[in-house]
């Protein structure tokens, strides 16, 4: 079986696929309020092009694909794309990251299409605060989450970006909410991606602090969670809750990085924290063969950098998180 191995010996078997850079929310650490400078629809990879690229990754050993964005459910007919990707040889796990605003409408269809796991961003359980952070409505997100639960998604993971003085007083409430609904909870440190991320980084909080706050309310036991991602997990004694800590800043996990990202316009981004990218769209539109496509992917992986430099060069990333899907 073929495998993609980068210059540092890491096996790259996971792809994050951004199906759109647009979003119906404006989380203030992610996208600027009035932002409109989106990719042109003519530059978006169409479903046939995406399928060709994912098939090539599958032949090269990619086993897991996550649909992300922007907000993936803003892309029309996303369940149809999901069904096409879920059928590709080699792709064993197709998952989705969403803000859940449109999930009530689409949860069942997505499940039937072959999406196995769902991650939902949720930074606050207080409607006013939620609106302040995202410009959106909490009730829509909560009904989307319940629809996902009814549709049988398990586990459902809640991703909470923790910001000092913004929502850090809700970490215990969020844990209780996840215990009540049998969700997994992950806390994320704010990253300086784009000027929005850099401004939000002023409210950066080391998750070690979150952990010690949780310890005042719960007994935390060592835990693991299948999935191969960067979160370090604990279990909460006496409950089914698992809590993951994603700490790109305080404890970077680049040595176990297993992923690259594909943007909606067909660029492979080799690291979330670096600018280097390899464009596949020109090849696709010039009639490249499957073999040429595979060669381009292998060539891209050979350029994967060793690590991000969020701490050393926080100013270096001009793009927003919504372009590469986190
Ligand atoms: N719209 C979907 C969502 O919100 O889940 C998928 C895309 S979103 C860019 C993916 C993840 O990136 C979300 O969990 C979001 O909280 C996270 N994110 C965005 N900007 C971030 C930042 N500056 N620092 C840390 N996480 C960020
Ligand atoms: Fe949209 Fe997700 Fe970015 Fe929030 S984090 S603005 S929901 S893409």
Structure keywords:
single chain; 326 residues; alpha/beta; binds S-adenosylmethionine; 11 helices; TIM Barrel
Question: Could you characterize the architecture of this molecule?
Answer:
With 326 residues, this protein is α/β, with parallel strands linked by helices. It is built from eleven helices and twelve strands. The protein has helices spanning 47-59, 78-86, 103-113, 127-134, 138-150, 171-181, 194-200, 207-215, 281-285, 290-301, 321-324; strands at 14-18, 64-68, 93-98, 117-121, 156-161, 184-188, 220-222, 232-236, 242-246, 259-262, 267-269, 277-279. The chain has a twelve-stranded mixed β-sheet with strand order 7-8-9-6-5-4-3-2-1-10-11-12. It is globular. The model has no long low-confidence stretch (mean pLDDT 95). The structure holds S-adenosylmethionine (SAM) and iron/sulfur cluster.
Number of spatially distinct domains: 1
Strand order of the largest sheet: 7-8-9-6-5-4-3-2-1-10-11-12
CATH architectural grouping: Alpha-Beta Barrel
Largest sheet entry: 12 strands, mixed
- Cofactors and ligands present? S-adenosylmethionine, iron/sulfur cluster
The CATH class turns out to be: Alpha Beta
Helix content: 25-40%
- Overall pLDDT metric: 95
**Span from first to last CA?**
29 Å
Low-confidence parts: none
Our estimate of the beta-strand percent is 15-25%
Number of helices: 11
Fold-level CATH name = TIM Barrel
